[in-house]
């Protein structure tokens, strides 16, 4: 363009043609304009709002991404939001072109279709051009935003221990049911509909068929809320540990309620919480309300856990207690010592005192210390059938993380060798898949 401008000016002067001088001037201005304007230096920030934060499978997720101009005016801004790799946009568009004044904002609204798994947003890409469009500057705006869509839990692996009320848990006892169990010699008074008439017609022998009896299970979802269990794979996840603990307990409880079992709730740590096993719509609401509001399930880790983690030490097993709004605090006779601390054994004794003879426990614990393994074995040794659901919160990026993962693997082996079923729930795996993959599930 500069060469064309010089050539037009030269011919215009030699030929004394004003029109060529004008063409050369315009071409020169066009060639010089990009060099006279400043190169864009964008200073941008991004924030993202996701609703709902924990969607169900197939639910629409509304995303609102706002880019703010913290610097000078930008004449031409092109924005492409970094949507999760495995999700498709079902409404709106994650793209926008606009101009931004200093302090101006550009908002993008679109919808995603949720699928099971944890979905992280990729950095948003911003392309800024100068007024002439000849200079482009590209920026990536990272934001550590993600959401988790959890598939429905198909089944909770319960043990054979059950009450004598009819229900969906198949036992090894013969009686009324659907699944065949055995054939017994006919006894006077046996129901006529259980007589094996084919065998009688073939052999003349009168026998009765027995089926596996289906019983109703009484299950207590027990949450390990000790300071040692407030751990996460990354320290940059604020309050994720407490929220995840509540969510896991709620999803396991919902799966049990859906199977028509009688479900209770227990928690131990800074406080003790006990909700006896019941069924019914009112009890389901009471279950979730206690899980969300009881002080035993606090979101923030206790100061003892923060201090121990900061100093590299261990977390004490004696915890300060107090009466909560639900009346679940321990009495003065259950307090060990003059410092107002309560041992974990005392809290477990309080919980076990509320169990029926056929109640079994689903213990949710990350197995971050040997005490968690001992607690599961203590329940099992006391005659209570235990199933451990253990979310894996270890990381392998550091030597300490690899050591923690190895120690946790040893605790899993100890529990399995003791005959206790363990659901090893990896961070990249859905709870339903982890439940399905459990080996040696009891019947």
UniProtKB/TrEMBL annotation:
<protein>
    <recommendedName>
        <fullName>DUF58 domain-containing protein</fullName>
    </recommendedName>
</protein>
<feature type="domain" description="DUF58">
    <location>
        <begin position="183"/>
        <end position="296"/>
    </location>
</feature>
<dbReference type="InterPro" id="IPR013783">
    <property type="entry name" value="Ig-like_fold"/>
</dbReference>
<dbReference type="Pfam" id="PF01882">
    <property type="entry name" value="DUF58"/>
</dbReference>
<dbReference type="InterPro" id="IPR002881">
    <property type="entry name" value="DUF58"/>
</dbReference>
<feature type="region of interest" description="Disordered">
    <location>
        <begin position="298"/>
        <end position="337"/>
    </location>
</feature>
């Amino acid at each position: 363009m500069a060469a064309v401008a010089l050539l037009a000016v030269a011919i215009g002067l030699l030929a004394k043609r004003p029109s060529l001088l004008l063409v050369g001037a315009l071409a020169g201005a066009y060639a010089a304009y990009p060099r006279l304007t400043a190169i864009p230096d964008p200073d941008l920030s991004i924030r993202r709002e996701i609703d709902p934060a924990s969607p169900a499978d197939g639910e629409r997720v509304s995303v609102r991404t706002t880019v703010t101009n913290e610097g000078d005016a930008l004449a031409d801004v092109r924005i492409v939001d970094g949507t999760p790799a495995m999700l498709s946009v079902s409404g709106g568009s994650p793209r926008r072109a606009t101009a931004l004044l200093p302090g101006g904002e550009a908002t993008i609204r679109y919808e995603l279709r949720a699928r099971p798994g944890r979905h992280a947003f990729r950095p948003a890409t911003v392309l800024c051009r100068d007024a002439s469009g000849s200079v482009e500057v590209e920026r990536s705006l990272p934001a550590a935003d993600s959401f988790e869509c959890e598939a429905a839990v198909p089944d909770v692996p319960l043990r054979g221990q059950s009450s004598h009320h009819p229900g969906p848990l198949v036992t090894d006892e013969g009686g009324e049911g659907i699944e065949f169990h055995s054939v017994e010699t006919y006894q006077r008074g046996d129901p006529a509909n259980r007589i094996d008439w084919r065998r009688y017609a073939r052999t003349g022998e009168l026998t009765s068929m027995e089926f596996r009896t289906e019983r109703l299970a009484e299950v207590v979802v027990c949450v390990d809320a000790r300071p040692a269990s407030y751990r996460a794979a990354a320290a940059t996840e604020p309050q994720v540990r407490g929220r995840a603990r509540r969510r896991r307990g709620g999803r396991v409880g919902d799966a049990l309620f859906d199977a028509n079992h009688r479900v209770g709730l227990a928690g131990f740590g800074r406080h003790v919480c006990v909700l006896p096993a019941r069924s019914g719509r009112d009890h389901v609401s009471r279950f979730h309300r206690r899980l969300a509001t009881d002080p035993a399930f606090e979101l923030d880790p206790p100061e003892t856990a923060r201090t121990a983690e900061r100093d590299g030490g261990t977390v004490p097993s004696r915890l300060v207690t107090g009466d909560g709004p639900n009346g679940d605090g321990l009495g003065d006779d259950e307090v060990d010592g003059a410092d107002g601390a309560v041992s974990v054994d005392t809290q477990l004794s309080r919980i076990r005192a509320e169990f029926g003879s056929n109640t079994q426990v689903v213990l949710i614990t990350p197995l971050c210390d040997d005490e968690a393994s001992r607690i599961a074995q203590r329940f099992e040794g006391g005659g209570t059938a235990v199933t451990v659901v253990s979310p894996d919160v270890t990381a392998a990026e550091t030597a300490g993380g690899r050591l923690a993962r190895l120690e946790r693997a040893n605790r899993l082996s100890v529990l399995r060798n003791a005959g206790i079923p363990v659901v090893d729930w990896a961070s990249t795996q859905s709870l339903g898949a982890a439940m399905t993959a459990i080996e040696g599930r009891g019947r």
